[in-house]
Design goal:
Blueprint (H helix, E strand, L loop, with lengths): L28 H29 L6 H12 L7 E2 L9 H11 L11 H12 L10 H10 L6 H17 L2 H11 L1 E3 L2 E2 L1 H9 L8 H9 L14 H17 L8
Parallel strand pairs: 1-3
Antiparallel strand pairs: 2-3
Length: 257
C-alpha cells in the first residue's frame, strides 16, 4: 500500500497590521518661545564672535556712528561730509598713540578692558551732581564704536561689556589701538588718524609732533564742538596737560600684561 504524503504545514499569514504611527509632539507656546530664544542666542554668539574674528584681520570700513552722524546732518539740512581712510598702526605717529592713552585711558596697557577705579570715580562724581564722566576705557570705546550704537541704557552697556571682553581676548591691545585710532570721531565728519591729521594739520599721520597729537586727543570728548587748531583756552590747557602726561606713558609695549 503506497504511503500517503502529509500536506505541508501552512505558513502563518503575514500580519496586515501597520506599525503604530509615531505620535506628533505638539510643543506648547512656552516651549516654542524657549527654543526661539535659544536659537536667537546661538545666532547672536556665533555672529558676534565671527565678526570680532573677521575684524581682527580686516580693516573696519564703516561704523554705526558714521551712519548716525550722516543721518543727523541730513535731517538738519547740513552737508553730509565724510572722511575716513584706514591707516596701519605702524604708520600712525607714536605721539598720537601716547596722547590718546594719556588723555583717555592711562591704564590701557595693563587692564583687561575695564578700569574699575575710573568707573568708581565716575560714579561718585556723577552722584554728587558734577559734570558727567564716563570712565570708559579705550577698549570699551572701541567695542561701542565698531559694533554698537550710542546710548546709555543698561542693555547697550551690557553688550558693550560683552564685546569689550571679546576684543580683549581675540584682538589684543595693539589691534584694539589700531582700530580705535582708525574709527574714532576726530572732527565733524572726520574719522580716524589719517583723516584727522590731514584735516587739522595738512600732514601725514606718521609725522605728528607731541603738541599736534595732544591737540587731536584734547578734542575727543566732543570733536564736533572743539577744534584742534585755533583752539580755545580750555583746549590749550588740555593740550599742555596731555603733553606732560605723555612723558609719563613712556615707551609703549602692547604685550606689557
Amino acid at each position: 500500500m503506497a504511503a500517503t504524503k502529509k500536506p505541508a504545514p501552512k505558513k502563518p499569514a503575514a500580519s496586515k497590521t501597520k506599525p503604530a504611527a509615531k505620535k506628533k509632539t505638539n510643543r506648547t507656546f512656552g516651549e516654542k518661545v524657549k527654543w526661539f530664544f535659544i536659537k536667537l542666542f546661538l545666532w547672536f554668539f556665533g555672529l558676534s564672535i565671527g565678526s570680532v574674528i573677521f575684524f581682527k584681520y580686516v580693516p573696519v570700513p564703516f561704523t554705526p556712528l558714521m551712519l548716525i552722524r550722516a543721518i543727523e546732518n541730513k535731517m538738519a539740512g547740513k552737508e553730509v561730509y565724510f572722511d575716513h581712510d584706514w591707516e596701519p598702526i605702524d604708520k600712525i605717529s607714536m605721539n598720537l598713540q601716547k596722547a590718546v592713552i594719556a588723555s583717555e585711558d592711562g591704564t590701557f596697557l595693563y587692564h583687561n578692558g575695564f578700569d574699575f577705579k575710573a568707573l568708581q570715580k565716575a560714579y561718585k562724581s556723577n552722584e554728587r551732581g558734577r559734570r558727567i564722566r564716563g570712565g570708559s576705557t579705550i577698549s570699551q570705546q572701541t567695542a561701542k564704536n565698531v559694533f554698537l550704537w550710542q546710548g546709555k541704557s543698561y542693555f547697550r552697556k551690557g553688550l558693550e561689556a560683552y564685546f569689550t571682553v571679546l576684543i580683549e581676548i581675540i584682538w589684543g591691545k595693539e589691534r584694539i589701538m589700531e582700530v580705535y585710532l582708525n574709527s574714532i570721531e576726530m572732527g565733524d565728519g572726520v574719522y580716524g588718524a589719517y583723516a584727522a591729521t590731514e584735516h587739522w594739520y595738512r600732514r601725514d599721520a606718521s609725522s605728528l609732533t607731541q603738541m599736534q597729537a595732544a591737540g587731536i586727543a584734547a578734542i575727543l570728548p566732543n570733536p564736533r564742538k572743539f577744534k584742534a587748531t585755533g583752539s580755545s583756552s580750555y583746549i590749550n590747557r588740555r593740550k599742555e596737560r596731555i603733553v606732560r602726561e605723555m612723558r609719563a606713558v613712556g615707551k609703549i609695549n602692547y604685550n606689557a600684561k
